[in-house]
Amino acid sequence: MQLLKDKIRNEAKIIDNRIIKVDNFLNHQLDITLFNEIGKEFKRRFAGKEITKIVTIETSGIAIASIVAQYFDNVPVVFAKKHAGLNMNQDVFEAKVYSYTKEQEYSIKISKEFLRPNDKVLIIDDFLASGSALMGLINLLSQSSVEISGAGIVIEKTFQEGRKRILEKGIQLESLAIIDSIKDGQVIFK
Amino acid sequence: MQLLKDKIRNEAKIIDNRIIKVDNFLNHQLDITLFNEIGKEFKRRFAGKEITKIVTIETSGIAIASIVAQYFDNVPVVFAKKHAGLNMNQDVFEAKVYSYTKEQEYSIKISKEFLRPNDKVLIIDDFLASGSALMGLINLLSQSSVEISGAGIVIEKTFQEGRKRILEKGIQLESLAIIDSIKDGQVIFK
């Protein structure tokens, strides 16, 4: 997706030739116009797939998933909670995820009532790198009876082997910008 | 806003005649069709106001703010972070908030680069109860040079005195459903 690649080239901050910060449009300030283009592109890539629900992970996936849902007949969005409050229903599906940016393990939870047996789920998330968050979410969904129709990722960093782990599960994986490597502070796309 | 009140009456779970859980459409599963109607309503209530940015707070405000932004010429959304990662810029505006649902104090942060001197900010959030989160956000914004054009809240619980604290600041406050009290497990709107 050219618009997204241009945004990354022009606005991402590269730290230590390793970390890509896209706070300017994806993770802190949100570019709603871009998110709408992302929604159109995911609709194109998952055309013909039946989708009854979009599932994402707190926090950065929520805004994207919500805009994307508008291109899939406004299906409900459910986000896996990382920081469940005292009032959260205890009847949940749960999985463990290791965060490399926070250097700690955490649990993600979804109330069972929001994953129905006939649901066809499209997973949406902002980043795929180690694949840890996405694999955690897939593990969580596998405890329910939903069908996973696909996974749509905004930015994938292939050099961290996340893709392989997802494809082995037989899930259609679509990433809108795939970063092959970072050299001298420059992003090189696949 | 009738549609919202109906949703609350029909789908909210009332706990101890005190806590209103709207996980079904606002805080865990997200009703994107409803959010679009919320966007239209906020546009109507803040008609004529100049808005260059929408600011909200992690987590539940993010999806609503993103959909609402579409009714304000797709202005950027910035969310105050509760759970900043290791990579977050250290050059931030910061304020303290006490959470009654998590029973602890936390910091909210926004990178200074995303609050510009000429910004006219519309604050959007899901709940107004004690007013603690909203007052924290207003304090944070007051450290920058932005102008606060208004605050749009989806559900207000007036019995917790949040409104008074905001109005004293001279900020236009619009809540789409105002809950006067809860009796015998039933919500009574103002």
UniProtKB/TrEMBL annotation, chains A, B:
The keyword Glycosyltransferase applies. Xanthine binds at residues 27, 157. It is found in: Cytoplasm. 5-phospho-alpha-D-ribose 1-diphosphate binds at residues 129-133. Pathway: Purine metabolism; XMP biosynthesis via salvage pathway; XMP from xanthine: step 1/1. Its main location: cytoplasm. CDD domains: PRTases_typeI. PANTHER family: HYPOXANTHINE/GUANINE PHOSPHORIBOSYLTRANSFERASE, XANTHINE PHOSPHORIBOSYLTRANSFERASE. Belongs to the purine/pyrimidine phosphoribosyltransferase family. Xpt subfamily. Homodimer. Converts the preformed base xanthine, a product of nucleic acid breakdown, to xanthosine 5'-monophosphate (XMP), so it can be reused for RNA or DNA synthesis. This is Xanthine phosphoribosyltransferase. The gene is xpt.
